[in-house]
Amino acid sequence: MEIENQVPVQDVTFTQSDIDGLYKTIFNRRDVRSQFKPDPIPDDVLARILQAAHHAPSVGFMQPWNFLVIKSPDVKQQIHDAFTEANEEAAKMFDQEKQKSYRSLKLEGILEAPINLCITCDRSKAGPVVLGRTHIKTMDLYSSVCAVQNLWLAARAEGVGVGWMSIIKEEAFHSILGIPEEVVPIAYLCMGYVSHFNKKPELETAKWRERLPLSEQVFFDQWQQTKTGEQEGLIAELDLNADFPQKFTNLYPG
Amino acid sequence: MEIENQVPVQDVTFTQSDIDGLYKTIFNRRDVRSQFKPDPIPDDVLARILQAAHHAPSVGFMQPWNFLVIKSPDVKQQIHDAFTEANEEAAKMFDQEKQKSYRSLKLEGILEAPINLCITCDRSKAGPVVLGRTHIKTMDLYSSVCAVQNLWLAARAEGVGVGWMSIIKEEAFHSILGIPEEVVPIAYLCMGYVSHFNKKPELETAKWRERLPLSEQVFFDQWQQTKTGEQEGLIAELDLNADFPQKFTNLYPG
């Protein structure tokens, strides 16, 4: 029985083409807010994207997610109204200079995207005691986030843009979508085909914030302990190959 | 300037080989606890995997993650001790029958895996007001989870097994790894090459819990609203192609 579930090690190595397909997707995935086209997403495409989400890792194999597919113009409009109210509050939280920049950004595509999708976490889905959630209680929320990321990558590979809209009061999701109190709305995603994908994150292009150097985000054995002896090889590698992602984003003419 | 950042739409379509590479990775990714080999992960491989993590989406382009690479046998042993204590507490939370099954499962590979990796969320990394985190305060935690999932997929494609170990008191991460209070340890991952990958999740094989039917996890426009009219196409598609993931896991002989 256990043997049947095993994949011999000589068969687990992916081809370079498989590996490149993954990296190409990861490095070209973008948060899309403003390039949605009205073309519907065919059911077979959406089905594959949802399968990818459903095969995310989950604590105790809990699969705590549900997928709420929203096409109703009325529901979208209510969500958009709640966004608009929250976005005005949000803008005022930034100081004058940053606020001007903030107000110039388009931060959602609720009405234009043919599909909005809310991914939730039903904390009661596998009973009160969940393997792996006994001590760290947020593990089930994190499982639903893994589903979001799988979905986002599958969508990118299928040519579908996804934007995560988080500027809204959480209560709005409960009241507008009828989500019960014990279910946590994890992500509200705007999805659709796009006129183009951007090469870089929009917030990087707009100089809102810079890409941090990866080698400076890595510690060894203890928090804030930087390169020591044998560990220097990894840091050197990260600095030397800092342009590895660009090899995939540069596949497209600028 | 904006033009330079655009990728013309005719170039955004991935080849079938790219798409298959992604799906192959998603559907063959496993939570590994017991098949680690001692072979070191070369620095160039680990660097690529970390690049994938670093290119996860993040709220307000915050990049709140740090990567704490742990190779020290002493640190691993302390984490393992904290796991053992928590795991004993965890076992007792299940009723008699389930407890027996729980105790038969191997739930971590801390000491065997050549690398342990803690991915964190530094909530202060982009100042007090973060674009997109103004109303939903957990968004930065979710960003770090997206980094975990990107890392997990990149590792799988590179032939590296990853297991998420969550049976531990969160305080242990702070005290053993020196992580400050304002930084949240999101995931503790055991990583290494493996003797084999399993075809199915171990908890599915062990009949701990079943894979839920995806078509039953999908709602339309409102919570618990099931197929209505035009939406039936998606449900039919999900049921018809429920074996889509198996097309990729069956690439390997069982």
Task: Give your account of this protein's structure.
- The structure is a homodimer of 254-residue chains.
- The first copy, chain A, has 9 helices and 7 strands.
- By secondary structure, chain A is α+β, with helices and mostly antiparallel strands.
- Chain A folds into 2 domains: 172 residues, 3-Layer(aba) Sandwich (NADH Oxidase); 43 residues, no CATH class.
- In chain A, strands 2-3-5-4 form a 4-stranded antiparallel sheet, sandwiched between helices.
- In chain A, α1 crosses α5, α2 runs antiparallel to α5 and α3 packs antiparallel against α6.
- The model of chain A has no long low-confidence stretch (mean pLDDT 93).
- The interface between A and B is large, with 133 and 134 residues.
Write the layout of secondary structure elements.
2 copies of one chain form a homodimer.
Chain A: E1 6-8, H1 16-28, H2 43-54, E2 65-70, H3 73-91, H4 96-104, E3 115-122, H5 139-157, E4 160-164, H6 170-177, E5 183-193, E6 196-198, H7 202-205, E7 218-220, H8 232-240, H9 244-249
Antiparallel strand pairs in A: 2-3, 3-5, 4-5
